[in-house]
Design a protein that fits this description.
Blueprint lengths: L1 H24 L1 H24 L9 H12 L1 H4 L3 H22 L4 H22 L4 E2 L2 E2 L1 H25 L14 H21 L5 H28 L15 H22 L2
Antiparallel strand pairs: 1-2
Length: 270
């Protein structure tokens, strides 16, 4: 058990260093990191879907890559209108391909593909925009969001494990407790206060809103992924990092938080 804890901590530290380094190095490194998360997330999702007797679609990747490139088209000087046409074309080609396959469950097959794009590729694409403030890349924004997510996850786990008695949503995640949720949220407030002190790109009130978004929607994101895994009775979405599960296990909170953070940061800049 002690060896497993050491291994988990070691891989967790390496993972954190890689993440933080990619964010602070610059846009190319950050976008590359997001692309890796998206592609491996799609792969894990397709494996989960296959175990639920659903079809794995290769076209899920070109659609997702096109959506991602559309999101960073300004940075890469790509023609966004051409990419938009490609996305529309691919979206409707899927239906033609389903006709050709003649499978018995077209609703499930199509639903599987578009769920993957909406659940993984769409939030990742929006995440490319989050650190862009006044047309400049601000790594402190996305760095802070990940720090808030990690603080929330870690303290919710510790409080829930040691003091949790009342289940949050037992039918989806039996180990999550109300005490853990509250504990995680309280520490997130503390960390958010420190972040607001050091990074003045947002006001204290704006950081407070971002902290609440992370604290609430991050937990919802964790529960959503647990809902998927519970349906097919698996513990982890993958095994890319010993003791930490797969990419979806590590980024489930981020995937669900990113769209709401994006909306808020866009409203702030209006």
């Amino acid at each position: 058990m002690e060896k497993e804890l050491v291994q988990r901590a070691g891989f967790g530290f390496i993972f954190m260093v890689v993440m933080i380094s990619a964010i602070w190095i610059g846009q190319v490194a950050y976008y590359s990191l997001l692309a890796i998360i998206m592609l491996f997330g799609l792969y894990e999702f397709s494996r989960m879907a296959v175990s639920d007797n659903l079809e794995k679609f290769g076209i899920m990747y070109p659609i997702s890559i096109s959506v991602f490139l559309y999101g960073i088209s300004d940075f890469l000087n790509l023609n966004s209108e051409v990419l938009k046409l490609i996305i529309i074309l691919l979206v409707f080609i899927v239906f033609i391909l389903e006709l050709k396959k003649q499978k018995p469950n077209p609703y499930k097959n199509l639903g599987n593909l578009y769920l993957a794009v909406i659940y993984i590729s769409f939030p990742i694409t929006l995440a490319t925009k989050i650190p862009i403030y006044n047309n400049e890349y601000h790594p402190e924004i996305i760095f802070s969001i990940f720090i808030l997510i990690w603080a929330n996850d870690s303290f919710a786990y510790l409080v829930g494990k040691n003091f949790g008695k009342h289940k949050l949503i037992e039918r989806i995640s039996p180990k999550k407790t109300i005490e853990g949720f509250v504990g995680g949220l309280l520490l997130t407030y503390v960390v958010g206060t420190v972040i607001a002190y050091y990074f003045d790109i947002f006001t204290f009130g704006q950081w407070f809103i971002i902290t609440n978004i992370v604290g609430i929607f991050g937990v919802l994101g964790d529960l959503v992924e647990s809902m998927f895994k519970r349906k097919i009775t698996i513990k982890d979405s993958g095994k890319f990092m010993p003791g930490h599960g797969g990419f979806l296990d590590r980024f489930d909170s981020f995937l669900f938080t990113a769209p709401f953070i994006y909306i808020f940061t866009q409203l702030v800049q209006l």
